Amino acid sequence: MNLASFERFAGKRTVELQQKSQGTEAVIYTRVSSKEQADKNLSLETQRKAIEEYARRYELPVAAYFGGTYESAKTDGRKEFQRMLQFIQQHSGRIGQILVYTLDRFSRTGGAAIKLAQDLREKYGVRVFAVTQPTDTSNPSGILHQNIQLLFSEYDNQLRKQKAVAGLKEKFEKGIWATRPPQGYDIVKINGERKLVINDVGEKLRMAFQWKAEGMKNEMIIARLQALGVPMYKQQLTKLLKKPFYCGIINHGLLEGRVVEANHEPLISRELFLCINGEKTSAHARRNVPLRKENNHLPLKVFLRCQACGAPFTGYHVKTKGLYYYKCRTEGCRCNRNADQLHQLFEQLLETIVLKPEWIPALQYQLEYLFTEQNKLQTEREKLLKTQLTEITKKINMLEEKYYVSAGMPLAVFQRLQAQYRKEYEMVEEQLKDVKGVDNPFAEYLQRALTLAKHPAACWQQANIGIKEKLQRLLYPNGIFYDQRQHHLNASSLNLLFDRNE
Asked: For 125-266, where are the alpha helices, taking DSSP H only?
């Protein structure tokens, strides 16, 4: 029996497998690591010219071009790079080489790049070839040489990173924000020096900080910013309000837990920033009272204290009676009272105070200023809404032209988009009606505001829970005390703008 009988157990020939897996065409990949290189150094043009010259010299057909833009080689998750790999997979057996200018244009990931180059050779028969660093990877010594070059590319990248980080850290320590600035700032060159300046968005963010300090809810702040043309979502606003960058403080991670005074113009004062992020928390800590939900029936919670022990009052609801009560937090104090009765006492206390006449002109001036600012806000919102209507109208006209004139759109798609745009138009139109419909009889509003300021009791009675709590703190900064034995309210201090009229 001869050996031919066993040839069917030998498997495929290596030569056949190699011939089947090798392609005859190439793809070209070019890249630069920054837009500045792409715009100024013309390295993309240089790379492509050199690679195309190599392909012509060796009569190597080019199947496709990839890259041609700025992509970092720190990772292999680049869009153009991944698109090239997908093209190779889809045309397996057709592509034989990836042509690059230098190996660091292919990748700077070191070991990961070596593994990727190996997979391309073994799975798809594709070799990475640098036209300025020619290496024959058809043999082990050539592969070793290429692997060493890829490792050196990663090493060079790490050295650059180390120098860059050291430079950034030095700038941060000098108070210079060296990276991309947060929302609200632009980078400009003044006499050749890099500066951060507040832009139009920053001016609107300034108002957001002020609104927050005044106690406005995040949802309302977001709605106002969006009405002014500033896109915003909840998590974004929360992070923004906690950035000390806006008050002129740098706290970058490279500073290792330290903060430094910044050189750029602050958007807000440090006092305002701490008011939003510091004083509220510390105030609750000093009272040793947990944050609570608002209850329209119990506006005096925490603000009202027990005369006997000094502890703040909490509140509760007796469902069987349908009544609300205040009670002292101190266990065993047994100081509690019907909420309506305490509200009557508080209103009587407010009847005894009046606004000092000498402060009325200053108050009137401030009210006029606030009205002017609010009117500017309404004007800006109206302008923005009109712009939105114009843009939606353009979309509708272009859609109809494409469908009726060009006939290049299916009916179902046309109807869906048309309905969507018309709905958007109607929504913006309704908002515009609300803005235009706001009547501003300033003299009437001013007189009403001054009347309420002169009569705090009437203002407190008409206000919602949020305004009531603010007014209470404004009039009596240190709160008030309830004497259960005499059923009487005592105030330790009164705002200097007011007098007792007893």
From this structure: 140-173, 200-213, 218-227, 234-241
CB 77 within 8 A of CB 3: no
Q: Which CATH superfamily is domain 11-162 in?
A: Resolvase, N-terminal catalytic domain (3.40.50.1390)
Q: What angle do CA 378, 382, 384 make, to 5 degrees?
A: 115
- Which residue, 19, 21, 66, is CA-closest to 44? 66
How far, rounded to the nearest angstrom, does the alpha carbon of residue 23 sit from its chain's CA centroid? 48
Helix residue spans in 300-437 (DSSP H):
339-351, 360-400, 411-436
Instruction: Provide the token pair at 156.
Output: 């060079």
E strand residue ranges, 282-373: 304-306, 313-318, 323-328, 336-338, 353-355
Taking alpha carbons only, the member of 107, 86, 96 closest to residue 138 is 96
Write down the pLDDT at residue 72.
Answer: 61
Structural tokens at position 365: 């001036």
Candidates 3.90.1750.20, 3.40.50.300, 3.30.950.10, 3.60.15.10; CATH matching 185-287 = 3.90.1750.20
Q: Are 228 and 243 in contact (CB under 8 A)?
A: no
Asked whether 493 and 478 are in contact (CB, 8 A), the reply is yes
How many residues in the chain?
Answer: 502
Residue 323, phi-psi category: left (phi > 0), alpha (psi -120 to 50), beta (remainder): beta
For residue 184, the one-letter residue type is G
393-408 as b/e: b if 16+ CB within 10 A: eebeeebeeebeeeee
pLDDT attached to residue 482: 93
* Range 129-150 burial, b when 16+ CB lie within 10 A, else e: bbbeeebebeeeeebeebbebb
**pLDDT on residue 75:** 53
For the full predicted model, state whether its pTM sits above 0.85: no
Residue 194: beta bridge partners?
A: 189
Q: Which residues contact 345 (CB under 8 A, 6 or more apart)?
A: 482, 487, 488, 489
The string of pLDDT tens digits covering residues 183-230 is 999 998 877 888 899 998 998 999 899 888 888 888 888 888 887 888
Would strands 498-500 and 353-355 be described as parallel, antiparallel, or unpaired?
antiparallel
Segments of the chain with pLDDT less than 70: 1-2, 6, 8, 10-22, 34-42, 70-77, 279-295, 373-374, 377, 406-408, 434-443, 445, 502
Calpha distance 153→163 (Å, rounded) = 16
Closest C-alpha among 464, 462, 436, 435 to residue 449: 462
